[in-house]
Design brief:
Blueprint (H helix, E strand, L loop, with lengths): L2 E6 L8 H14 L4 E6 H4 L16 H12 L2 E7 L7 H9 L8 E7 L9 H11 L3 E6 L5 H4 L9 H26 L1
Parallel strand pairs: 1-2, 1-3, 3-4, 4-5
Pfam family, one: FMN_red
Organism: Sporocytophaga myxococcoides
GO molecular function: FMN binding; oxidoreductase activity
Length: about 190
């Protein structure tokens, strides 16, 4: 069974995007699609990027743990809020921290906002950064508009049937890319 690492990108107080990360973990595991774990950037509390991990003389144990979890995951699902049309610096920080770990890694993107566009303005800039480090971005997207109305604090969706239907197509696309990569690597 594949393993999906879910990156919860917001480190803000009272963040709402983490609700979507909780939803995806529960959805993936309760439907036995894969194993899933959340890499919560708020818990990691990384220092500001100053050099790629492989060039750091004394990387922290947290950096090594995070790098290992990204490298060993079959696929990555990034849940990111949109801040002023872009993604948070906490996410840019970890994208730049790693390099080899992202190589041809299937990465799905879920964008979140408090407004009606669901964070869709962030997709282009985030995809570009991931492409530059040679990650494989999955073509399916999962925008979440009005996140505070879409999910409760435990990640339960307000419209379970509709959200699950969208999530099925989204996660199946990530799983397809994971399987395709696995076949190409053999």
């Amino acid at each position: 069974m594949p393993h999906i690492a879910i990156i919860s990108a917001s480190v803000r107080r009272d963040r709402k995007s983490h609700r979507a990360a909780l939803y995806f973990k529960n959805f993936i595991e309760s439907n036995a699609l894969a194993t899933a774990g959340i890499l919560d950037l708020q818990e990691y509390n990384f220092p500001l990027f100053d050099e790629r991990l492989k060039f750091q003389p004394n990387p922290t144990p947290q950096m090594l743990d995070f790098a290992s979890k990204v490298k060993n995951a079959d696929g990555i699902l990034i849940v990111t809020p949109e801040y002023n049309g872009g993604y948070p610096s906490s996410l840019k920080n970890i994208i730049d921290l790693l390099y080899d770990e992202w190589y041809r890694k299937p990465v799905a993107i879920s964008t979140v906002s408090g407004g009606s566009f669901g964070g869709t303005q962030v997709i282009t800039s985030l995809q570009f950064s991931l492409w530059k480090i040679r990650a494989w971005t999955v073509p399916a997207m999962f925008p979440v508009p009005t996140v505070d109305k879409s999910f409760d604090e435990q990640g339960n969706p307000a419209d379970k049937a509709g959200t699950d239907k969208r999530a099925t197509a989204f996660i199946n696309e990530l799983l397809w890319c994971i399987e395709a990569k696995k076949r190409m690597d053999t």
